[in-house]
Design brief:
- The chain is of the alpha+beta class.
- It has a single domain, classed as Ribosomal Protein L30, Chain: A (2-Layer Sandwich).
- It is built from 2 helices and 3 strands.
- A 3-stranded antiparallel beta sheet has the order 2-1-3, with no helix packed on it.
- 15% of the residues are buried.
Length: 60
């Protein structure tokens, strides 16, 4: 399965509570932090909700 490297590039201060919860659920807490998650429709949906705060790269 493919993996996604997700990086938090913008602060969640001032963003909507739904966006903050999605970022936390992805496992991101600090600015510049990176996590690797399996590519799935659930993760893609979470990324779509707060895409303006994240940078996403596909890994093989």
């Amino acid at each position: 399965m493919k993996e996604l490297k997700i990086t938090l590039v913008h602060s969640t201060i001032g963003s909507k509570p739904v966006h903050r919860k999605n970022v936390e659920a992805l496992g991101l807490t600090k600015l510049g932090q990176e996590v690797i998650r399996q590519d799935s429709p659930v993760v893609r949906g979470m990324i779509a909700k707060c895409s303006h705060l994240l940078k996403v790269e596909e890994l093989d």
